Amino acid sequence: xxxxxxxxxxxxxxxxxxxxxxxxxxxxxxxxxxxxxxxxxxxxxxxxxxxxxxxxxxxxxxxxxxxxxxxxxxxxxxxxxxxxxx
Length: 86
Hints:
Helix 1 (16-29) links the parallel strand 1 and strand 2 (34-39). By secondary structure, the protein is α/β, with parallel strands linked by helices. The chain is built from two helices and three strands; from the N terminus they run E-H-E-H-E. The chain has a three-stranded parallel beta sheet with strand order 1-2-3, with helices on one face. The two termini are 22 Å apart. It has helices at residues 16-29, 52-71, and strands at 2-6, 34-39, 79-84.
């Protein structure tokens, strides 16, 4: 399963344990291998100074890559997290 999350400001104010629990809940509700792409659209972290059009293009490319990995059964872990612009 592929999930795209928009993490404004990289969810800096979120408790890391709560984030882990949320992933655990999703996994238990839908027993499958998961890939989460966490996309920070803001002008912070590694995305500072990157044009939104370029960010969206990079997100599109990452989605295609991960979908191909899923189709080819190359995602080995039960949970993978890809962070873009953190």
